Amino acid sequence: MEWRNNRVLVTGASGVIGRTVVQRLAGLDVRLLAVDIAPGDAKGDALNMGVDRLQADLSRADLGFIRAFDPHILFHLAATFERTEETPDFWESNFAHNLTASHRLLQAVQDCQSLRALVFASSYLIYDPKLYLDVPKVHPLMESEAIAPRNLVGLAKYFTERELDFVGKTAHQFRTISARIFRVYGRGSRDVISRWIRSALRGETIEVYNRDGRFDYIYADDVAEGLIKLAESPGAQGIVNLGFGTARSVADVVEILRQEFPGLQLRHTSMEGSSEGSCANMKYFSELTKWIPPTSLEQGIRQVVAYEMAKQSSRPMATAGAVQPA
After folding, report:
1. Does domain 7-184+218-245+280-294 have CATH number 3.40.50.1240?
2. Checking DSSP bridges between strand 52-55 and strand 238-242, what pairing results, if any?
3. H or E stretch covering 252
4. Which of 144, 232, 249, 295 is close enough to 1 for a disulfide, judged by CB 3.0 to 4.6 Å?
């Protein structure tokens, strides 16, 4: 696919995945519109390097700008998540910013005559939890596995997948791709790995729970590249897994952090509930794109550590007593 002179719209452009998608697309000589509910910063990042930027709440804003922009490619990454137990407030937020926002976006793009592909950031939380909770052995999940959304986010993602499928079949003029993304971590993220690294740099004890839990950790930069690869691949359509393809335990994460922070202080907490063992089968993705995510958990964690250290050193006053990486 030739990107030059294409109009590309990215929603959720200020998120941990969206920032990298925008940065990479900005180097492909496209006309790029980056949309996010949050105001952009003015620190000279990719969103300020010749990229048109718009602050908009997709759940209630006038979406005429989408029709006016008439994108060739659209990356729909905007979403809201709750990292812990879902609360009544999140129930409302999920409905507005996952369900309603996506539905209104799909209504708007049906009038976009130039649209050729819509790539949606979905989630592995759509799969039946019985496939990966309390399992003795990790079974790499295929796109054809049983579904039973695990929580509100999974339910909202599944609903949008079904709407995408419907729109794709009725509109005919563009491909719809739902990338079921596994456990993302990255620079400037709110994921547990980034939170632990920030705590370690502050010299704080990190709280570790469920050491035996196994997850398919995928670096956010690889997710961004994977989404772009799917847009570029003419055969990509429908449901596609996007993970690293290997399950790693929480204990593995802790050991890698110990290598980076020899003085790391840990507090182990036992939590009731199920133990996860999730992993993506990446065969279909690799067949479509001829690419596989390259960043190992060790490499990704080192990059996040370097990012957080640089961020800390740029502050006027560093935190006293911070644990220094090896």
Report:
1. no
2. unpaired
3. helix 250-260
4. 232
Beta bridge partners of 11: 35, 76
Tell me the CA distances in angstroms from 68 to 65, 116, 320, 325, one per residue in order: 5, 16, 52, 50
Residue-wise pLDDT tens digits, 198-236: 999 999 999 998 889 999 999 999 999 999 999 999 999
Q: Are 119 and 109 in contact (CB under 8 A)?
A: no
Instruction: Please name the amino acid found at residue 190.
Output: R
| pLDDT tens per residue across span 264-293 | 999 988 766 679 999 999 999 999 999 999
Round to whole Å and give the CA distance between 115 and 112.
Answer: 6
* Burial (Cβ within 10 Å: 0-12, 13-18, ≥19) of residue 292: middle
> Which tokens is 39 given?
């105001």
Max Cα–Cα distance, the chain, nearest Å: 60
Query: Long-range contacts made by residues 291-296, C-beta under 8 angstroms, separation at least 24?
Result: 291/225, 291/226, 291/229, 292/245, 293/218, 293/219, 293/222, 293/223, 293/225, 293/226, 293/242, 293/243, 293/244, 293/245, 294/222, 295/218, 295/219, 295/221, 295/222, 295/244, 296/244
Q: Are strands 183-185 and 175-181 parallel, antiparallel or unpaired?
A: unpaired
